[in-house]
Amino acid sequence: MKLRYPQWTKPYLLIAPALALAVLFSYRPFVLTVLNSLYTVSLSGKRITFIGFDNYIRLFANPSFQASLYNTLRFTLFFVPINITICLSAALLSNRPGRLATLNQIFFFLPMAVSLSSSMMILKMMFNPSIGIINQLLHLDVQWFNNRHAAMALLVFAGVGLDIGLNFLLLSAALRNVPTDLLEVARIEGANSVQTFRYLQGPLISSTLLFVVVTNIKDAMLISSPVMILTEGGPFRSTQTLVYQMYLEGFKSGNYAIGSTIATVVFTLTFSILLLLLHLERRRVYYQ
Q1: Omega before 235 within 30 of 0, i.e. cis
Q2: DSSP per residue over 74-100, as a string?
Q3: Using alpha carbons only, what angle is made at residue 159 by residues 156 and 160, rounded to the nearest 5 degrees?
Q4: pTM of this prediction exceeds 0.85
Q5: 172 and 91 in contact (C-beta within 8 Å)?
Q6: Kindly report the CA angle at 274 between 269 and 280, in degrees rounded to 5?
Q7: Is residue 3's pLDDT more than 70?
Q8: Rounded distance between C-alpha atoms, residue 150 and residue 160, angstroms
Q9: 178 phi/psi in degrees, rounded to 5
Q10: Which has more pLDDT, 14 or 268?
């Protein structure tokens, strides 16, 4: 016997499994994290005493948190424009007709085939001040892991290397969807490459470009794995980020209340930045 149910319930039944997983593994942990930030929490994870915003007051007065916040924002300011410029240039280069177009696509897409931990370990060996190939090839004597500026530059380089594959794929696909007849009209009218991108290709791929910018900001604000493997927050906390400090406080020190507080601050800060960006770019993005 077939079960009968009202037609209006069908969409809700279809999304119910995905919604249940989202509630179980995303929304519920988020709510618990926010609650933990308002309490003192025992080593077993049990909430003890409600203290309101005291954890936030202590956190923002902590010099270590101030350094982590500064490093995260500085990394974001360097990483996002550099990554967008490189990925967009790579996508434009690979979409040009020629024999090397396929080779360029493989070269830029290749980083997606290497795991994060493996690529970071390879990078750590390459930039080793004593035996690394980078210093030897370029005849440098840079202490990549002991110099504040060099360590941050290395972290930005690692972040770009990790994100270039997916960003290149998205931007390359968007450029390929630009109608060829419009590109031919632009060439007939005498537009050069810069003018073609500024007035034709750029507006038509603006929605994809906005998505890439948003994901890059999110990745920059949440960076932790390259920090753990490459620099461990050093030297002198110059590369310690918010998520890495959350890992130190919550998982290594067992201070779940402060760890939850940092997680809530990271979410609020990232969400606010993305909302502001979406509001500012709302009139400049074309959807087709």
Answers
A1: yes
A2: HHHHHHHHHHHHHHHHHHHHHTSSSTT
A3: 90
A4: yes
A5: yes
A6: 130
A7: no
A8: 15
A9: -70, 125
A10: 268
Secondary structure of residue 190 in the 3-state scheme: coil
d(CA 90, CA 96) in angstroms, rounded, equals: 10
All structural domains of the chain: 54-280 (1.10.3720.10)
pLDDT in tens, 62-92: 999 999 999 999 999 999 999 999 999 888 8
Q: Are 145 and 151 in contact (CB under 8 A)?
A: yes
pLDDT tens per residue, range 150-200: 999 999 999 998 888 888 889 988 888 888 888 888 888 888 888 888 888
Write out the two tokens for 229. 């493997």
Report the Cα–Cα distance between both ends of the chain, in Å, rounded. Answer: 46
Question: What whole-number distance in Å separates Cα of residue 30 and Cα of residue 4?
Answer: 36
Residues contacting residue 152 through CB under 8 Å, at least 6 positions apart: 71, 74, 75, 78, 238, 239
CA-to-CA distance for 124 and 119, rounded, in angstroms? 9
DSSP string, 125-157: HHT-TTT-HHHHHHT----TTTSHHHHHHHHHH
**Residue type present at position 109:** F
**CB neighbours (10 Å) of residue 199?**
12
Distance from C-alpha of 205 to C-alpha of 217, rounded to nearest angstrom: 18
8 A C-beta contact, residue 236 and residue 148: yes
The rounded Cα 219 to chain-centroid distance in angstroms is 1
Measured in degrees and rounded to the nearest 5, phi and psi for residue 56 equal -70, -40
What token pair was written down for 25?
């593994």
Whole-angstrom distance, CA of residue 241 vs CA of residue 245: 6
